[in-house]
Amino acid sequence: MMNIRKAIAAGLAAVTAASMLTLAGCGGGGAAQEENPTSIKVWHYEEDNGAMGVAWKKAMEIFEKETGVKVEFEKKSFEQIRQNASQILNSDEAPDVMEYNKGNATAGLLASQGLLTNLDDYVKEYKWDEKVTGSLADTGKYNEKGVMGSGNWYGITNYGEDVIMYYNKDMFDKNGIEIPTTMDGLTDAMQKFVDKGITPLAEGAAEYPLQHLWWQLVLSKADDQFVKAYEMYDGDVDWDSEPITYATQTIKDWTDKGYISKDCTGLKAEDVGQGFMNGTYPMFFSGTWWYGRFQNDMKGTNVTFSTFPQSKKVVGSSGNLWVIPENSKRKDLAAKFINITLSDEVQDLMGNSGGLPIAADPAKITDKSTKELIESFNKVLKDNALGFYPDWPTATFYDELNASLQELVNGSTDVKGAIAQMKSDYDKGVQDAGVKD
């Protein structure tokens, strides 16, 4: 992930064929398909007590009951899959179906390399395009260059996500501080916590949290054309524009004022999420994928949330994708498993576990706060406010953006230097990928 982190080796067991092979079924070519398989291999990286982890466990149970085929589930870390995906999927070690990150630099890259199965026939068979629609569908389709939004289907999501501000209201009440509803209110609240010796904002620059905050600050000043230029190469990105200079300067200012700890350079997402859960920090800006865990692990704590104050765009998109590696020998079964994750039973369970299902029955969502979360996301969709994620444009920008923000926070570079490095890394990555006409 980061240049300071060790690469995680993929110590993965090989998939063996149990019987004679035939050509692929409805899913198309690639690896020969196994006759009468007795198992499929599923990988994902969700926590067991998170909404997706709970829902997908149920999907595996339903799959085994309906098919008589055993699910060999292996939990991988986000980083294991992200760092080694191309190598793994270009071998016989590939799973039959796995969760994978969406965007040009991840699913788009693998699709353009021929490592993912074209799902168009399955989409038609199961009518997935009637459930996965609009901006949620953009991240599942990629053209021949791996640019999202058009072309063939290579991934299917079954949930949505956006990045929101979580507040520990008990900590706010204890310190006599109001939950902010404006940007001025947010900075005022953070200053009051600092005055009381409390670092207000849980942040980690060793993984995605700080870059998500940086991108949200960019989006608070950006328009649709800026987002299209940055994410889809529709025009040139002006790295001296207000959105980028404002966001980068704000990260520097908030660090200098103590709103963000300089120690965040070594903290991962799980570190700061745990810090929020144990009451070290009163605020955490991160994804709705945390919501179910907070519901389970912070029982008795009053946690509220909102979208980022006074921003028309928010960080977010469809959820991660289910993809079928081209080397899978059990594609039809993999597609059946994906279809079960979109079933009413699994979608309703996800919603009642704190997730954002895309095909749940609202009448079946019983938890009041979860309904509020779903309503908030539905408003984001209605307002066309999803601003995607900052690392999507190139295969290496996730690490490079984190590195630039680390140097900004620890003081080894200034705002101009950080922006110059971001621009250099972005431009080189886009050029090397050959995705821009």
UniProtKB/TrEMBL annotation:
Annotated signal peptide: 1-24
Organism for this UniProt entry: Bifidobacterium pseudolongum PV8-2
Q: Name one Pfam family in it.
A: SBP_bac_1
- Source species taxonomy: Bacteria, Bacillati, Actinomycetota, Actinomycetes, Bifidobacteriales
Whether Signal counts among this entry's keywords is yes
Protein name, as recorded: Sugar ABC transporter substrate-binding protein
The keyword Signal is assigned to this record: yes
User: What UniProt keywords are attached to this protein's entry?
Assistant: Signal
